[in-house]
Amino acid sequence: MEDKKRLEEFEARIQRGEKIEPKDWMPERYRKQLIRMISQHAHSEVVGMLPEGNWITRAPSLRRKLVLLAKVQDEAGHGLYLYSAAETLGVDRQELIEQLLEGKAKYSNIFNYPTLTWADIGVIGWLVDGAAIVNQTMLAKSSYGPYSRAMIRICKEENFHKRQGYEIVATMAKGTPEQKKMVQDAVNRWWWPSLMMFGPHDTDSPNSGELLRWKVKTKTNDELRQRFVNLTVPQAHAVGLTIPDPDLKYNPETGNWEFGEIDWDEFWRVIKGDGPCNRERMRARRKAHEEGAWVREAAAAYAAKHGMKSRVA
Ligand code: FAQ
């Protein structure tokens, strides 16, 4: 009875648009859903450093190198805010990281694809950060206070990321024929995986019902995907690039760019661990974790000496 009343009060608070804070009562399912989602998000930010990190040493100018370094460093920061947000739900960061390193945790499908040329760096900023902004602007209104507040800062930084990506894309698109070819090829490879970032169709999304009811998400996977397509197609056309979808067409009645069918077999294969780079990404993360052991030990020793809780994982 007690729990039923608490649940009703909790749901009424959500309906009134109040934020739920860490010490407030919440149903176990709400806590579990948030830990799942926030930890997957944190892992995505950290694994997401790898494809772009691959190009830091080969950036074509000092300016591009500085910008890329700052971007990759921002992604590390996003991972840290998100692990902290997950910890407010009573889970240990180390435990979450172990789940990732043991291959038990999910992270975004998109980071399992290779970055073959410099144009990929532009296209990731434009499409991948662009998709992340559409998704995370919605999450900034999420009912869980620490997650929604983390999203506000993250979205501001992602906006810079998107602009630097689009600037690279626009520069290459008006460059030599080879550069234009290179950037079109990158768009062809990243377009469909970027659409997959929004998750399965609403009809195949087991978590959406609960997340929408509790306003963790305020828009569905398909709504956000459509918003991303509507924003992005004109940006491609503005710089003379084509979207690799023969079924793409504008519907003047709905104002939507309608698009072709996504290869969901590829999506499920990639998120279950069998994408082009899953193994390589996990190898790189494990190596970085092992090589960082001395930093964690030093931080833990410092924290113990000064009576602080170590927050390094
Ligand atoms: N990749 O029931 P749903 C970034 C899984 S950050 C992998 O629809 P939900 C910044 C899902 O977990 C990118 N797995 O799930 C950056 C579930 O499996 P589970 C990350 C996916 O939660 C840029 C199953 O499929 N952003 O890019 C994906 O309602 C550049 C069924 O799906 C976030 O994590 C996927 N794309 O909706 C960084 C945002 N989609 O857990 C570096 C927060 C679905 O039941 C460089 N997350 N799955 O075993 C969300 O908004 C949601 O969790 C969705 C999925 C929309 C991703």
| Poorly predicted runs | none
Order of helices and strands: HHHHHHHHHHEEHHH
Q: Please give the number of β-strands.
A: 2
Mean pLDDT: 96
Q: How many whole angstroms does the radius of gyration measure?
A: 20 Å
Total helical segments: 13
Our measurement of the CA-to-CA distance between the termini, rounded to an integer number of angstroms, reads 40 Å
Beta percentage is under 5%
Helix content: 55-70%
Q: What structural category arises from helix and sheet content?
A: mainly alpha
How do the strands of the widest beta sheet line up side by side? 1-2
List bound small molecules.
Phenylacetyl coenzyme A
**The biggest beta sheet, please?**
2 strands, antiparallel
Question: What's the shape?
Answer: globular
Plain-language structure description:
Helices cover 66% and strands 2% of the residues. It contains 13 helices and 2 strands; from the N terminus they run H-H-H-H-H-H-H-H-H-H-E-E-H-H-H. It has a two-stranded antiparallel ribbon. The chain is globular, with a radius of gyration of 20 Å. The mean pLDDT is 96. Bound molecules: Phenylacetyl coenzyme A. Phenylacetyl coenzyme A (FAQ) is lined by residues 36-37, 40-41, 44-45, 48, 75, 106, 108-109, 124, 128-129, 132, 135, 196-200, 205-208, 211, 221, 271.
